[in-house]
């Protein structure tokens, strides 16, 4: 893995050589559509990488390949120096270490909020039920929905559901958290409560890959912005560099469209 | 003379025969059906192919033909000396399992994809995902078609009566040989079947109500 075209992260944290997630020359097709084209991406431990770009540029697909919810046609993905295994028990074990937050929350509809957060601990990590509940309550308090523990997901607002989903992922003590457009399905007034939780996570040193349209979050929380268009990584830079002085025409075009209205 | 009162013991034996055949076949069908439905949505291609073959072969074969195979091929080729009850249960159970599998699969398809993805994302294996997250949410959709399947099964067990099993259909032969009016015999036999099918009906209505409250 030493010949990866390492894209040096300018604003990265102290241990920039400590690679947690390495994507090497990833290609993927959906039928005739080449959604991911020669993607190289390295994410260091503790780094917050925000992936932005127009719709259909492959951002979400990229995010989902990291825990193999999408398979790739070619290229290699390693997490913590271990290559992503084939479907099976090994893959399940690895996924437990990779937290994922979805656009549509995907809380288990037939389980209470508390059960949503304990389920993975008990069934996957084999944690004692009481210990798991205690941890779940702490996490729910941390994301500000501690008083909703006994409700069902459908009884919560979108913002609350998404915060529960974050707590559910955190309960597994993940090495890295993937956020696949976590605020895209939320009412504007609920976006902030979710972003604040994510900001806090970033400050606490969690390694994060965030696909989002929230430019404010990218500006304030990201160590690095990855700009994707048409299945390629067009530009990688620090947020200051990217937003004030984008190099590529594609990025300039994109920013002019979203920042002026 | 009264057919029913004169032959109460025989009717009882026939009724219990049908009931027993139905219950054991239904249990076998549910267990197999769940496994086969799991195969059909599994990420492993050979399992998917096996599941599809199982459903298509069993569902499309006339049950009588399955009975012929079970009673005249299986004992000769594979297991000599198996009793007729076991063979009948296998024929009915395997046949019905293909219908159960399809009902379960349609239930699985009503559970949003995201539920299974979320379960896999926290590290659950395929079986855990199915057992803990998907199937419980599929149950409500699966229950109504399941009652139709079991009612059909009850009536299908009559074929077992023609293959050396004592059940409601089988005792008809004995009784008409004894000289009773065939029409009257069948009235009572029909009543026996109706008791079982209505019981299934009621049981599933109860189950449906129970599941509705739970949500």
Count all strands of chain B and give the number. Answer: 0
Q: Detail the poorly predicted runs of chain B.
A: none
Q: Name the CATH superfamily assignment of one domain in chain B.
A: MetI-like
Query: What's the Cα radius of gyration of chain B?
Result: 20 Å
Classify the secondary structure makeup of chain B into a structural class: mainly alpha
Distance between the termini of chain A: 44 Å
Write the layout of secondary structure elements.
The complex is a heterodimer of chains A (261) and B (215).
Chain A: E1 19-30, E2 33-44, E3 48-52, H1 59-65, E4 74-79, E5 82-83, H2 89-96, E6 98-101, H3 113-123, H4 129-142, H5 158-170, E7 176-180, H6 188-203, E8 207-211, H7 215-221, E9 224-229, E10 232-237, H8 239-244, H9 249-259
Parallel strand pairs in A: 3-8, 3-9, 6-7, 7-8
Antiparallel strand pairs in A: 1-2, 1-4, 4-5, 9-10
Helix pairs in contact in A: 3-4, 3-5, 4-5, 5-6
Chain B: H1 3-6, H2 8-40, H3 45-60, H4 63-77, H5 84-110, H6 113-121, H7 126-156, H8 158-162, H9 168-177, H10 182-214
Pfam family, one (chain B): BPD_transp_1
Subcellular location (chain B): Cell membrane
Transmembrane segments (chain B): 20-41, 53-73, 85-104, 182-200
Keywords for this entry:
heterodimer, A: 261 residues, six-stranded mixed β-sheet, 10 strands, disordered N terminus, B: 215 residues, mainly alpha, ArtM/GltK/GlnP/TcyL/YhdX-like (chain B), MetI-like_sf (chain B)
General description of the model:
The complex is a heterodimer of chains A (261) and B (215). Chain A is of the alpha/beta class. Chain A has a six-stranded mixed β-sheet with strand order 6-7-8-3-9-10, sandwiched between helices. In chain A, strands 2-1-4-5 form a four-stranded antiparallel β-sheet, with helices on one face. Chain A starts with 18 loop residues before the first strand and ends with a helix. Chain A has helices at 59-65, 89-96, 113-123, 129-142, 158-170, 188-203, 215-221, 239-244, 249-259, and strands at 19-30, 33-44, 48-52, 74-79, 82-83, 98-101, 176-180, 207-211, 224-229, 232-237. In chain A, 36% of the residues lie in helices and 24% in strands. The relative contact order of chain A is 0.17. With 215 residues, chain B is mainly α. Chain B has a domain at 18-167: Orthogonal Bundle (MetI-like fold), CATH 1.10.3720. Helix content of chain B is 85%, strand content 0%. Chain B is built from ten helices and no strands. Chain B has helices spanning 3-6, 8-40, 45-60, 63-77, 84-110, 113-121, 126-156, 158-162, 168-177, 182-214. In chain B, helix 2 (8-40) runs antiparallel to helix 9 and helix 9 (168-177) packs antiparallel against helix 10. Chain B starts with a helix and ends with a helix. At the A-B interface, helix 2, strand 6, helix 3 and helix 5 of A face helix 6 and helix 7 of B.
């Amino acid at each position: 893995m030493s010949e990866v075209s390492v894209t040096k992260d300018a604003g990265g944290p102290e241990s920039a050589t400590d690679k947690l997630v390495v994507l090497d020359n990833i290609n993927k097709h959906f039928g005739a559509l080449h959604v991911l084209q020669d993607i190289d991406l390295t994410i260091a431990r503790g780094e917050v990488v925000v992936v932005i770009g127009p719709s259909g540029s492959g951002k979400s697909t990229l995010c989902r390949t990291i825990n193999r919810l999408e398979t790739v046609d070619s290229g290699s993905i390693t997490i913590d120096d271990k290559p992503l295994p084939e479907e099976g028990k090994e893959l399940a074990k690895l996924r437990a270490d990779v937290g994922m937050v979805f656009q549509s929350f995907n809380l288990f509809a037939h389980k209470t909020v508390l059960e949503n957060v304990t389920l993975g601990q008990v069934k996957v990590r084999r944690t004692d039920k009481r210990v798991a509940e205690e941890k779940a309550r702490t996490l729910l308090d941390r994301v500000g929905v501690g008083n909703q523990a006994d409700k069902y997901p459908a009884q919560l607002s979108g913002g609350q559901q998404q915060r529960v989903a974050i707590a559910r992922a955190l309960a597994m003590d993940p090495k890295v958290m993937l956020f696949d457009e976590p605020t895209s399905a939320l009412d504007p007034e609920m976006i902030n409560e979710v972003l604040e939780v994510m900001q806090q996570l970033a400050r606490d040193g969690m390694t994060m890959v965030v696909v989002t349209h929230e430019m404010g979050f990218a500006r304030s929380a990201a160590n690095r912005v990855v700009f994707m268009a048409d299945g390629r990584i067009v530009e990688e830079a620090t947020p200051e560099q990217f937003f004030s002085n984008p190099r590529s025409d594609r990025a300039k075009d994109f920013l002019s469209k979203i920042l002026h209205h | 003379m009264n057919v029913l009162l004169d032959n109460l013991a025989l009717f009882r034996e026939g009724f219990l025969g049908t009931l027993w055949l139905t219950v054991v076949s239904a249990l076998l069908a549910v267990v197999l059906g769940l496994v086969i439905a799991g195969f059909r949505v599994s990420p492993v291609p050979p399992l998917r192919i096996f599941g599809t073959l199982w459903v298509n072969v069993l569902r499309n074969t006339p049950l009588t033909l399955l009975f012929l195979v079970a009673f005249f091929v299986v004992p000769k080729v594979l297991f000599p000396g198996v009793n007729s009850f076991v063979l009948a249960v296998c024929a009915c159970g395997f046949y019905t399992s293909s219908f159960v599998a399809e009902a379960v699969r349609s239930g699985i398809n009503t559970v949003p994809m995201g539920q299974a993805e979320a379960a896999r994302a926290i590290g659950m294996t395929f079986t855990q995902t199915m057992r803990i997250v998907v199937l419980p949410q599929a149950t409500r959709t699966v229950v109504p078609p399941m009652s139709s399947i079991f009612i059909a099964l009850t009536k299908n067990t009559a074929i077992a009566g023609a293959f050396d099993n004592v059940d409601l259909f089988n005792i008809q032969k004995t009784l008409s040989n004894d000289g009773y009016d065939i029409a009257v015999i069948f009235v009572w036999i029909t009543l026996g079947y109706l008791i079982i099918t209505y019981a299934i009906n009621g049981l599933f209505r109860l189950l449906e109500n129970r599941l509705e409250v739970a949500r």
